[in-house]
Amino acid sequence: MKRLLSGLKRKLKAVTEALEKLSAEGEKGTPIAVEGKNDLLALRKLGVKGEILCVKASGKTLIDLLDTVQADELIVFVDFDRDGRQLVGRITSYLETRGVKVNLGYWKEISALVRHDVKDVEGLPSYLEKLKKPIQQFLLES
Question: Which CATH architecture has domain 2-127?
Answer without folding.
Answer: 3-Layer(aba) Sandwich (3.40)
